[in-house]
Amino acid sequence: MTLKRLHWRRHLIIAPAVVALVHGLTIWAVPRLIMDRIIALGSTDSTLERTNGVTLPPPTDHTQRRIVMPSPDLLYATCFFDLNEQPLRVTLSTNYPRYWSIALYSSSSDNFFVVNDRSAPDGHVDLTVVDPRHQAVTSTLQNGESRVVVAPTHRGMLLMRLLVNDDPGVRAAAELARRSLRCSR
To answer: Taking the model in full, what pTM does it have?
Structure first.
């Protein structure tokens, strides 16, 4: 076998291995980089209203493109967390009659928990989000009221969505529901 043929065989083995490695690193890194940027922007943007540990972005319109393709039919609330020092307590008490949901996302952009108007029809949510080192043996804390959710990563975000329309009464009710969300340490 000539030296030239050995050279090509080596390339035929090395090239797919390099492609697979780069692909794997990209699939692993891109979601984490995106979430790091979203958490950093949401945590430091001084133009957004904040209340009770929750960020309340303005209603979505054609100028709102911080996150790809937000829906104008939804009103949003966010909460960014770092569980390294202490758990996050999330509470909501609302009688909003339309669709709403609270979703928790890890720092790798994976959704790891959702509660909505169907799973909490009384409109009451009480969660304690703990870091991945937490050894949750039950789904309640000592007071028996808060559901423990173990996050897969230390950092992440909560995203609340409320379905709205152009009716001012619906928008006002959604705003009350959104403002009843609490994120505290």
So the answer is: 0.72
Q: Are 149 and 104 in contact, with CB atoms under 8 Å apart?
A: yes
Between 3.50.50.60, 2.60.40.10, 2.60.40.1610, 3.40.50.970, what CATH number should domain 49-184 receive?
2.60.40.1610
What tokens does 99 get? 């669709």
Cα 42 from Cα 37, distance rounded (Å): 8
Domains of the chain, by residue range, sit at 49-184
**What are 23-62's pLDDT values in tens digits?**
777 777 777 676 777 666 666 665 565 665 677 776 766 6
Burial of 19 (C-beta count, 10 Å sphere; 0-12/13-18/19+): exposed
What is the largest distance, in Å, between two alpha-carbon atoms of the chain?
A: 81
Take residue 131 and report the two structure tokens written for it: 């870091």
